Amino acid sequence: MPAVVMLVLFSKDIIYAWTGNQTTASCTGSIVAVMAIGTGVHGLAHVPWGLQLAHGWTRLGCGLTIASIILFAPLIIVLTHQYGAFGGATAWALVNIFNLLSNQLLMHRRILKGEMRRWFLVDVGRPAAIAILVAGLGRVIIRDSPSRLRLLIELIIVATGTLLVTAIVVPGSRYWLKSHLAIWRRKKAGAGVKSASAENSLR
User: Fold this and answer.
1) Rounded to whole angstroms, what are the CA distances from 59 to 46, 70, 86, 114, 137?
2) d(CA 99, CA 68)
């Protein structure tokens, strides 16, 4: 989620920091932003798909994939003809949004009944809101940077801050961080004890 939000809010800045070409950044920024939304939604769809595979239910995913292909083919032709590359990116985003929403609506009638609202609001909505809040604050602060190097440093700071704050807020990643921090502290304490024992032995 932090990566998607960064690509949406800072698409032009990221492309400029990468290529050094302001024209390229201006022409492709909106395309990258929409593509990021579509790819992010596509990534989220892997979660329910994995659950369905674990449940031994493959028919829903196969059916939605076929439906997405049928929808995507005419949609990308029409939108690309009307709006060029931006239209093609929009078709990608719309098809993935359709796939995710349809998947969730149909899946939760059979698996994890009553959990769909929590998945959207808590598991997806909370990290999305936090990422948008932190990165949005960075967007307000960062304006026209005098150099690519300074812009790159600012982007790294905002991206790191967005990732860390989002990880701390989300219960699962917060637990992961705490457990690994506890393991690191135990290893450090164990190394300290071994070092002291070795020093006493030498004495």
Assistant:
1) 15, 17, 32, 21, 43
2) 7
Q: Is residue 183 part of a domain?
A: no
Q: What's the domain count of the chain? A: 1
Q: Report which residue type is found at 29.
A: G
Nearest CA-CA partner of 154 in 162, 99, 171: 162
Task: Give the domain range for residue 94.
Answer: 2-169
- Decide if 61 is inside a domain: yes
Confidence of residue 8 (pLDDT cuts 50, 70, 90): very high
In-domain check, residue 176: no
The answer to whether position 32 is within a domain reads: yes
More confident residue, 203 or 69: 69
Task: Determine the straight-line distance between the first and last CA of the chain, rounded to whole angstroms.
Answer: 55
CA-to-CA distance for 200 and 193, rounded, in angstroms? Answer: 11
List pLDDT tens digits, range 53-78. Answer: 999 999 998 999 999 999 999 999 99
* Alpha carbon distances (Å) from 95 to 51, 73, 78: 21, 10, 14
Q: What is the pLDDT of residues 139-171, one digit of tens each?
A: 998 877 778 889 999 999 999 999 999 988 887
